[in-house]
């Protein structure tokens, strides 16, 4: 049976690729990639002569069906992103879903990940973390997401472009200007930089050019301290608390369960109060 391989590629330093990844890319019939120019550099470096096919957000609807057809014909295909792991804030989700629905074999070939690479060296808690990908571009929506997520006891991992890093730091400061935040850039490259401090401190470093706005960024936000967990909802009734989560898109059952967790109550107790049983 043909196989769809999900192959991790270097996030900066070309040496950060596994033997298995190189062998896989050399042996498959086709490599589906975001940008053929980027993947071609990797292929040239490792003498990989496999044909490349563009697969990105703008053509994935059309190309997903074509790639599934090729797999059904017996062709092995590797899916890669420009850097790191495919599907993780990169194209590929629709292709994997379609391959599984068609009962095709899907195999992973792990590799580097920018978020976890930055987390390791940030000095922020790494036992529990939540990956958010990219924040919304609009300021109001960005702050709303941060308000909801920054009250969780979990380090948040966010990807950001150099053009919006300052805006995102300012949004974080509006929610909690004392929270510890880390910025990672140029990861695994010669000028790798990971700085940790308050949003204000990091913004000052950017203004002084101590942190250059160059390359893709990882933003890490320390989770809320346990004593601060209840601060945001302490003035809400249980009805209002449940309704808040429903307005965020959760179904009532999930919202009730989350409220019970927030308030350290039994789910049944919250259910009875909310439904006035």
From TrEMBL:
The keyword Transmembrane helix belongs to this UniProt entry's keyword annotation: no
One annotated GO molecular function: rRNA (cytosine-2'-O-)-methyltransferase activity
Main location: cytoplasm
InterPro entries (UniProt xref): 4pyrrol_Mease (IPR000878), 4pyrrol_Methylase_sf (IPR035996), 4pyrrole_Mease_sub1 (IPR014777), 4pyrrole_Mease_sub2 (IPR014776), rRNA_ssu_MeTfrase_I (IPR008189), SAM_MeTrfase_RsmI_CS (IPR018063)
Xref: PROSITE patterns: RSMI
Compartment(s) where it occurs, according to its Swiss-Prot or TrEMBL record: Cytoplasm
Annotated Tetrapyrrole methylase domain residues: 3-201
Keyword terms: Cytoplasm, Methyltransferase, rRNA processing, S-adenosyl-L-methionine, Transferase
Keyword RNA-binding applies: no
Any matching Pfam family: TP_methylase
Cellular component, GO annotation: cytoplasm
The protein's Enzyme Commission number: 2.1.1.198
SUPFAM superfamilies, sorted: Tetrapyrrole methylase
Catalytic activity: cytidine(1402) in 16S rRNA + S-adenosyl-L-methionine = 2'-O-methylcytidine(1402) in 16S rRNA + S-adenosyl-L-homocysteine + H(+)
Protein purpose: Catalyzes the 2'-O-methylation of the ribose of cytidine 1402 (C1402) in 16S rRNA.
UniProt similarity note: Belongs to the methyltransferase superfamily. RsmI family.
The protein's name in its UniProt record: Ribosomal RNA small subunit methyltransferase I
Organism: Staphylococcus argensis
């Amino acid at each position: 049976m043909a196989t769809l391989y999900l192959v991790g590629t270097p996030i900066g330093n070309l040496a950060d690729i596994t033997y298995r990844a190189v062998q896989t890319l050399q042996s498959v019939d086709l490599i589906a990639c975001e940008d053929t120019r980027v993947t071609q550099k990797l292929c040239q470096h490792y003498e990989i002569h496999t044909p490349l096919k563009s697969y990105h957000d703008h053509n994935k609807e059309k190309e997903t069906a074509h790639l599934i057809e090729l797999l059904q014909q017996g062709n092995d295909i590797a899916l890669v992103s420009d850097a790191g792991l495919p599907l993780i804030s990169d194209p590929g989700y629709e292709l994997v879903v379609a391959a599984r629905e068609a009962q095709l074999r899907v195999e992973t070939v792990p590799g580097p990940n920018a978020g976890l690479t930055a987390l390791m060296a940030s000095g922020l808690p790494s036992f529990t973390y939540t990956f958010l990908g990219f924040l919304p571009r609009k300021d109001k929506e960005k702050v709303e997401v941060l308000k909801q997520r920054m009250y969780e006891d979990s380090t948040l991992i966010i990807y950001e472009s150099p053009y919006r890093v300052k805006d995102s730091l300012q949004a974080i400061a509006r929610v909690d200007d004392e929270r510890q935040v880390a910025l990672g850039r140029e990861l695994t490259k010669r000028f790798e930089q990971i700085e940790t401090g308050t949003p204000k401190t990091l913004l000052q470093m950017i203004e002084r050019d101590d942190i250059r706005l160059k390359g893709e960024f990882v933003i890490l936000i320390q989770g809320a301290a346990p004593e601060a967990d209840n601060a945001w909802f302490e003035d809400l009734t249980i009805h209002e608390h449940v309704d808040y989560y429903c307005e965020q898109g959760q179904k009532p059952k999930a919202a009730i369960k989350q409220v019970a967790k927030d308030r350290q109550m039994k789910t049944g107790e919250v259910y009875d109060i909310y439904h006035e049983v």
